[in-house]
Amino acid sequence: MSATIAQADGLNGNANIISPINMFYFLLAPALLLWFVYWRLSRRHMLELAERIPGPKGLPLLGNALDLVGSSHSVFRTIIEKGKDYNEVIKIWIGPKLIVFLVDPRDVELLLSSHVFIDKSPEYRFFKPWLGNGLLISTGHKWRQHRKLIAPTFHLNVLKSFIDLFNENSRLVVEKMHKENGKAFDCHDYMSECTVEILLETAMGVSKKTQDQSGYDYAMAVMKMCDILHLRHRKMWLYPDLFFNLTQYAKKQVKLLDTIHSLTKKVIRNKKAAFDKGTRGSLAITSIKTSELEKPKGDAGKTSTVEGLSFGQSANLKDDLDVDENDIGEKKRLAFLDLLLESAENGALISDEEIKNQVDTIMFEGHDTTAAGSSFFLSMMGVHQHIQDKVIQELDDIFGDSDRPATFQDTLEMKYLERCLMETLRMYPPVPIIARSLKQDLKLASSDLIVPAGATITVATFKLHRLESIYPNPDVFDPDNFLPEKQANRHYYAFVPFSAGPRSCVGRKYAMLKLKIILSTILRNFRVHSDLKEEDFKLQADIILKREEGFQIRLEPRKRKAKAL
Ligand code: HEM
After folding, report:
1. pTM exceeds 0.95
2. I need a labelling partner for 265 at 20 to 30 A (CA). Which of 26, 104, 330, 487 fits?
3. So what's the ipTM on this one?
């Protein structure tokens, strides 16, 4: 009898013993089936709500994943094309992952102004080996605690103390650019280098005088790390660490991070030693003209809402950077790192590792964004000569033929240049998408739709900034979109290049001030030309919006007119 069973079961020898491997396979199938049923049931709520959200059709299982295959520019074009039919909210599926794009300013306000929906989407984990738990990716109590500590270090009075450095580095970049006289070249390389140099000084207090080879290596490593992160976002097969770690990029990343972290650690060590010896902030900026710390004319000295400088967002939007100007005390002369170390010495709850994470975060966030923004601005000047004429006229009215450095007051008078900068950030927002992970359902303001918990929810800044219902002729570069009366009549959340609300960009004021000084210095010395028209630009959006062909411009040294009397 038992022999019969053994034969029937295909087993040799003892008929009642099933080998562990067979048992494993025997149980695996129902276990997988159970897991799949549970997984489907647990997602039922999500699937039901997602079903009602409009979006382009996808394939079974893959969803819209194939739209993300191809060159960076073709992916960008496909997404923009497919999004054309949707003006409020769009859904796509990347395999099992639901991504919802918000486009209506009312919904954008709901998300960005919230203190609940502050968790970053899982894709931000690629930054983790570099930035640890820095401000960009941290969440919850830690983020709140550190944001409170960091926001005041970007106070306007601190920023004014950086103006000499901004000027010095702007003059240097102009000197370097002279060698490109008349030739077409990619201005992003120059903007990138200049931005990292300025950050090394203002964020870490590492001045050119004290900088050795490690400063240069650091700057190069930051730029190359950004390239690897961009690449990883673009190539879906590099998403899992398992595959990424097998590539040459992973090996490169280890080396680059070693260079980056070694310098951050070294600088922190030196500065701490200086603190212990009582020479606080010894590597920090020392050349500050007290005139730069004066309040601009017309400022009653009560708040930092300086008349005439928008700082990159709608006039009535306020965040934690808009605080009392007087509430900064003695801190104004120190670099960002010195201020953090000082806070730690004074009992703030931040460890050395966390300080390193925050400095690395500032170096990343402050670099690529500003380099892209300034490169798009120069491209726009090259394409729109009649607009450039007006900017140049404004600069000549302010500076005449003088070579003097720009003051804070000058930046307040660069009203047309500022409008051009805002229009550049509208049409070419360096951060074209802001993504959050949704931990609870979000009922939209623009419709009855509900975005389910578990989705990645994003603000599609690029699309929002080009809505015809908000910006007539949205694809035309028109700085008058930022005339005060036009801004006053628009939804505040219709322009969010720096995000907005509690997780807005802490570097927003820093970026606007620095950009005005660098760009005005370039246009005081050169006229910019572009051989390509705007419609020839091949846009690519990895993490940062860029031009695939590079930011090709030509420069012509220009004669300045004497200041009008
Ligand atoms: C044109 C230049 C810039 C643009 C367009 C820009 C844009 C943005 C945007 C859209 C965010 C939100 C990102 C998100 O939620 O995923 C952000 C966050 C941030 N930015 Fe900027 N940024 C610029 C320059 C800077 C600079 C110069 C610094 C520092 C020196 C900086 C530091 C940061 C930090 C630390 C965060 C994270 C804030 C938080 O989560 O609390 N940014 N930026």
Report:
1. no
2. 330
3. 0.99
